[in-house]
Amino acid sequence: MENLPNCPKCGSEYTYEDGSMLVCPVCAHEWTLESETENNEDVKVVKDANGKILNDGDTVSVIKDLKVKGSSSVIKIGTKVKNIRLVDGDHDIDCKIEGFGAMKLKSEFVKKI
């Protein structure tokens, strides 16, 4: 009997082969050996309007006037946003803007400083 890897979802050691698939009887997770050997880090790369890679803690600048939904105020072009945090979703930057508070921005409307 060959040594099969533990389940990547629940860690169970009772995995078995079913054709070309590996199956976990505990959580019913199915995967292939090829997916196990690939790099499991699906890191999303977030880039600014100029194509520079953004990281948590960066300082960015807004490149166009942005209307704030549900308010009559506008975030002006050139507004600095310090200490950004990258998140998943359509609006991929989570930040606090002075005078506005907590906000989510799209990376396509900022440039890295």
TrEMBL record:
Sequence ranges assigned to domain Protein YjdM N-terminal in this UniProt record: 4-32
Domain Protein YjdM C-terminal stretches: 46-112
Xref: Pfam families: YjdM, Zn_Ribbon_YjdM
Gene3D superfamilies: 2.20.25.10, SH3 Domains
SUPFAM superfamilies found in the cross-reference section: Prokaryotic SH3-related domain, Zinc beta-ribbon
Family: Belongs to the YjdM family.
PANTHER family membership: PROTEIN YJDM, PROTEIN YJDM-RELATED
Official protein name in the record: Alkylphosphonate utilization protein
